[in-house]
Amino acid sequence: MKPIAIAKITVDVLMTLALLFLMGYQHWGEAAHEWAGAGMLVLFLAHHILNRGWYKSLLKGRFTPARAFQICVDMLLLIAMLAQMYSGIVMSRHVFAFLPIDGGMALARRLHILGAY
Question: Which residues contact 2 (CB under 8 A, 6 or more apart)?
Answer without folding.
Answer: none
